Fold each of these.
Amino acid sequence: MRAKLVTALAALLWLVVAAQAVGREPTAVGLWQATDDETGQPTGWFLVSDHDGVYDGIIAKMFLKPGQDPNVTCVRCRDDRHDKPWLGLEIIRGMRRDGLQYEDGSILDPRDGNVYDAMMTLTPDGQTLVVRGYLGISLFGRNQYWTRLPDSAYNELDPSIRRSAHARKSQVPPKPENSARR
């Protein structure tokens, strides 16, 4: 009798744990790649992190064109990011999560120093992040589609960014197993 009760409780516990794991939504935390709409070539990698429910993102890797300065700084930025190097620059700030939506944040375009209101939407499979910068209302904006990179891509980052990424990853709970392509 006691063995049946223990078996039943174990089965019930397993079902509860499995249901929680299945119901867990993916998050925007991770490494993302943006591509050029015309060429399909990568334009940059971005690392999104969660800091106690506030999400931010940095430029984690740049894909430079021949002759481009690898040490470019944000000379047109008008806030605390002025003259900071693009590599490692925080371009996404203040996003707050509501399910698969991230809102109330801002995004910086380091090319012109403009800061736009921003929102992000994560696809249910966790593999695409739609990043929208806009002026005033989201109707007046533009989408970028970022693709999640596998964990192995962290090895390709500059050592300074990799150290930062490691510190950021250790601050967040692990993501569901199916949220990164292998």
Amino acid sequence: MVEALGRGEQLVLIRKGGLIEPGSGFELVANTFVFYPTFEHQAVTYLRPRFQRYFDEASARRAPEGQVRIDLCGVAVSSVSSHDPALIERLREFHVYNEAFLSQRLKWQPEQPLVIVVVRAFRLATPHQLITRPRYAGCKSWVDLDSAIPLEAAQPILEEAVFQQRARELALLLAAS
């Protein structure tokens, strides 16, 4: 959930790939990217109770119909693929999702692993409001935007020392898988 990334409470993306994506499952096609917030497949019931307020906050900040607001970017620090439900549970302090969501993700296309991407999130200096395009829509992980969004002045969500400490904790959990 983008809102949790923007607050430093979520440091991982948990992906399998979108329904209309080519290939077999999620592929990390770029190490640096913007977060294109959508409400596709989003439900407050998939969030642990303490994070459910983020759904309401994201809904309240939602851009007007036909537009999307982009104010965060990310850098993929590392990634690992796994079929192990225990790994997802060990990562609990680094994501906002509940057991129902994680179970649903694991059961969907069970031959494909979950891809856990450790992400460092940054807030853009200036939010960008874009017109949505039909080709942006749908269940997919990557969207090529019509225009570039400048990332140079983006500020990290977490201070360097805090992020590095949490990234080390994550690395230990991921290495144990």
Amino acid sequence: MPMASLERANARPISPVPRLIFASRWLQLPLYVGLILAQGVYVYHFWVELVHLLGAAFGDARSIHDLYRAVGHAVPADGAPKLTETVIMLVVLGLIDVVMISNLLIMVIVGGYETFVSRLNLEGHPDQPEWLSHVNASVLKVKLATAIIGISSIHLLKTFINAANYDNKTLIAQTGIHITFLLSAMAIAMTDRILYGAARPMTDASGRVAGH
């Protein structure tokens, strides 16, 4: 008999109250479904911006106006904006931003469901994410903090490229927020290392426990 089946056979029955409390984790399922729908909205937004960029590349005036408005770039005084390198860079950074936020959503949906709701049983699946094999609440926090720093970096880069259209107060505020994210991620990683680092077995590059 497989070990998992043997453990289930030997498991003691759970009393009604603990069973109800444990089953309450399924209340999170609609939240993850909602995040999947939000992911769909981001996919739609990505393609709308990409279509505008392609239209602007072929000289469509309306698409160029839409891009200027989307990136917050000042329209030239003559009212005839052109697709400049700066605008293209801002749009591409915006697309990268959407992709990074989508990656963050996937991390929350897949990692959160696996950690707090139910196992996905992806062991042996060729498309199983590498990070999912050792994910837990602590690892998930560090990965989310790192992803947020990446998203904040893209926003800050967009702001500096388009700095002429922002006041100094906004530039300083965004820089301070980014530094705060960095310090927070460092604090989370340091706390995780202090609390759990000593208890975790050392692993080699292949993920195997050292010495085995």
Amino acid sequence: MRVLGLDPGLRHTGWGVIDAEGNHLRHVANGVVKSDGKADLAQRLLQLHHGIAEVVAAYRPEAAAVEVTLANKNPSSTLKLGMARGIALLTPALSGIEVAEYLPMIVKKAVVGTGHADKDQVGMMVARLLPGCNPAAADAADALAVAICHAHNLATGRHWSAGGEDPLAAQVQAQAKRARA
């Protein structure tokens, strides 16, 4: 299954595409969609939409996942980041792709083993889990981590669906719901 991971940001939205076959992961591509900081907000959001749409068209993912952004100290920045996140959720959905959401803590735990890992640890583990991968930037490494997290969750979900409900998926959904509230 081809999975697109997105790490939303108004200036830089990281993206990463992987192929997942059972427990085997393979790096396909990664990069960053940038918006023009001098343009007005609507144009910047449109730039992000077009950039993500190009990635979706080029790599044809079957699933997508977006990292949930948490509030920061500046309400204006939080609002703008939320808008960029909306574009990251909307763009794959417009192509008929189901989009999942993961808290940063869940992504880090899935990739590094601890929910409090720093960016360097995430980047190092992404490189180990995807041999030959050289992420274009920290945002791209984070997006690949989101894709890896989703691939693991999909594989776990398939495993549990054969014998019952997936407790991890229920936990992730509950945490994402609390984060949105």
